[in-house]
Amino acid sequence: MRAGSPFKMALFADLHFGEDAWTVWGPQQDLNSIKVMSSVLDSETPDFVVYLGDVITANNIPIANASLYWDQALSPTRSRGIPWASVFGNHDDAPFEWPMEWFSASGIPQLVCPMLNFTYSGELGCSFRGTSRLELMKNEIDNNMLSYSRSGPKDLWPGVSNYVLQVMSQEKPETPLAYLYFLDSGGGTYPEVISSAQAEWFKSMSEKINPDSRIPEIIFWHIPSKAYKKVAPKFIIHKPCVGSINKEKVAAQEDEMGIMKILVKRPSVKAVFVGHNHGLDWCCPNKKLWLCYARHTGYGGYGNWPRGSRILEISEEPFSIKSWIRMEDGTVHSEVSLSS
Prior knowledge:
GO molecular function: hydrolase activity, acting on ester bonds
Domain Calcineurin-like phosphoesterase: 8-278
Organism: Corchorus capsularis (Jute)
Number of domains: 1
Number of helices: 6
Protein name: Calcineurin-like phosphoesterase domain-containing protein
InterPro entries: Calcineurin-like_PHP, Metallo-depent_PP-like, PAP14/16/28/29
């Protein structure tokens, strides 16, 4: 935290870099996404950024190492010297899907693979082999001193992005102001689910480092849990929910393995943040915690709704957690208090 200032985070969700990479349209969308992130970062000047999954569209990426596109997505944050953490979405390690038109008379188009700007593991060139979660995470961590991402405990694999970070207090430097938990909600190469093992890991870890639930906890994963369906606005977003778009149904995880039961029992858990649904940006209360969507940030992926980013701000004296959405055009809306 900056002395005397709240701790501010920007959430970048569903960037989908590398989509239709062999077309003129695809690379242009990546450039547009960089403009969105740059606009948000310059307007909000956050202390931290969360990449909330579907950073890339791996099922559209024909190169040997999709970390080249992952690196492009990180570039606006890194160039401004802002630290970040990432969590995986269902598209980040999805197997390459061969376009049917490549088997027509026109054949496979000439593919242009990004040039290496630093050394990555793995073979070079276009190979269609895909890039695993472990490779993506290793390349991010090894090549970026500003990355706070982690590969997480091996006994939670195939889920990889499972870890906890702490925001330290300015008033009491030895005391965390908040804990930030990141969970891999699956998809891509394995089912879309937060496993029972992940739920138990969170329970064990939170009870160990925050036994009296005194320090607030904030949770990040990509695919919404089934609990989001229960609180979702039917048509128009109205109180107690706060948001601006409600244009599709909640696309939830395939099953519920216990994580929500654990979260609702912990008074220290204030909110869960997800992406995945590009046409939703609301926050709704679920008992004593909030279930929130980010805002579709990238120009890749489906939907033509205006792009933006959910902002999260933690203040110490008096303690509060606030959130709002900053749009690409600079406008702000949907402010909500998450600490009351």
